[in-house]
Amino acid sequence: xxxxxxxxxxxxxxxxxxxxxxxxxxxxxxxxxxxxxxxxxxxxxxxxxxxxxxxxxxxxxxxxxxxxxxxxxxxxxxxxxxxxxxxxxxxxxxxxxxxxxxxxxxxxxxxxxxxxxxxxxxxxxxxxxxxxxxxxxxxxxxxxxxxxxxxxxxxxxxxxxxxxxxxxxxxxxxxxxxxxxxxxxxxxxxxxxxxxxxxxxxxxxxxxxxxxxxxxxxxxxxxxxxxxxxxxxxxxxxxxxxxxxxxxxxxxxxxxxxxxxxxxxxxxxxxxxxxxxxxxxxxxxxxxxxxxxxxxxxxxxxxxxxxxxx
Length: 310
Known about the structure:
The protein has 310 residues and is α+β, with helices and mostly antiparallel strands. The protein is 46% helix and 13% strand. The protein starts with a helix and ends with a strand. Belongs to the XPA family.
């Protein structure tokens, strides 16, 4: 009986607490509904105030406000350029491109991953062109006028503009072989001696399948020849000496061919003796009695035979 009374007491307390909670919830709902009823009126007053403000005429901006707006605009442009400079690579449209691969069953217990053929665009770096600065202009050696770019300045580092370029005489190009033969220059004079002479590559006109032909600027080749030989007279003397030696060697080769030709023509009269030679020695002569040394001389060819007697 005591336990039943205690249980009924607990139940009554629980019911009273639940009733109080329900009452509190109803009060909160009533308060919220009252606020919602009052909200439409507040919205109407706010809309009326906005209409009054809009109906007022716009006041002109002061000079200080305009300056501030311009500064903010310039700052925004600088920030935008900085963001673009931090990522110069062009991004393809549509986001990132993921590689898609398909799996092929080889039938041997493993799979083959084959990438699909896709045309991949190479990322290009976007560089803004540098401004042209006046002091960076080159000065032409002939007309003394400034210029930005020319064929001779790019290929041979010669400060001459394209208008003053004379491809026939003054700025003529010669081959490497002609430079070595005409000005007696060696490979080390062209390639090793500082500064090395610059050249341009052209296809060989005799046969395009041969190696490319190196063309040098004749003006620079003449200067290099003067550095090597000193004066034009020394160069001319060296050329004459080489020409004389060349003529001597040519004459020797000619004489040798004439001699061989004469032998071929006179082969019926002159025959080479191919038989073996038998020495015919004369009487022996005593050279040294103490050592018993003797000598014999061939009467035909003059061969000497020295020997000792025991």
